[in-house]
Amino acid sequence: MKYSFVVSGAAETGLCAPDAHLKAEEVGREIVNQNGILFTGATTGIPYWAAKGAKEAGGISIGISPAASLASHVKTYHLPTDQFDYIMFTGFEYSGRNLLLTRMADAVVVICGRMGTLNEFTIAFEDKKPTGILLGTGGMADEIKHIVEKAHRGEGKIVYDADPKKLIAKLIDLISKERKELPLHTGESDE
């Protein structure tokens, strides 16, 4: 089974590190290169660059939109469509979309980010979802370690790295350990 990853990050990258968009693209490529499928919030900025990297690597990119339809996605939210193999229209606006998006994947990757990214991170943390923080990208990604320490809720299932390839590999290790703990189920009947 392929690994599924959400890339969460700032839709507006002006507050991110100057190379954050390049690292997001590299994360998208690494997800594909390491047998993964990419999910994003079907938005601009960091998620868009990750989707671009995934598509360049020949992978699958799925967007989860806050809009209820393609027309609303484009006309109301002003969101892109060109880097996605499929877009699911939730109609749940941003906060509802964030919950669905975060729960869809095996792991979440945080790159830069603002308030929405922090929301997706806290959902992943509360759900005990493996989460990778790409350090050196600015925004929330460079603040999360401090936030986790101040929250006094434990370390969570968080890995940190500044190298996209190493970060995805660390997350795959966490996912693989979780999968090994599950009983194997097949479609065959025991009868």
Strand content: 15-25%
Task: Write down the CATH topology.
Answer: Rossmann fold
Q: Give me the side-by-side strand order of the main sheet.
A: 4-3-2-1-5-6-7
Roughly how many Å apart are the termini?
26 Å
CATH architecture: 3-Layer(aba) Sandwich
The number of domains: 1
Summed over residues and divided by their number, the pLDDT gives a mean of 96
Which secondary-structure class do the elements indicate?
Answer: alpha/beta
Organism: Candidatus Yanofskybacteria bacterium GW2011_GWA2_44_9
Pfam families: LDcluster4 (PF18306)
InterPro entries: LDcluster4
Protein name: Protein containing YHS domain protein
How are the secondary structure elements laid out?
Blueprint: E1 3-9, H1 20-33, E2 36-40, H2 46-56, E3 61-65, H3 70-76, E4 86-89, H4 93-104, E5 107-111, H5 115-126, E6 131-134, H6 144-151, E7 158-161, H7 164-180
Parallel strand pairs: 1-2, 1-5, 2-3, 3-4, 5-6, 6-7
Helix pairs in contact: 1-2, 4-5
How would you explain this protein's 3D organization?
- Pfam families: LDcluster4 (PF18306).
- This is Protein containing YHS domain protein.
- It comes from Candidatus Yanofskybacteria bacterium GW2011_GWA2_44_9.
- By secondary structure, the protein is of the alpha/beta class.
- It has a single domain, classed as 3-Layer(aba) Sandwich (Rossmann fold).
- The relative contact order is 0.17.
- The chain has helices spanning 20-33, 46-56, 70-76, 93-104, 115-126, 144-151, 164-180, and strands at residues 3-9, 36-40, 61-65, 86-89, 107-111, 131-134, 158-161.
- It has a seven-stranded parallel sheet, with helices on both faces.
- Helix 1 packs across helix 2 (46-56) and helix 4 packs across helix 5 (115-126).
- The chain contains seven helices and seven strands.
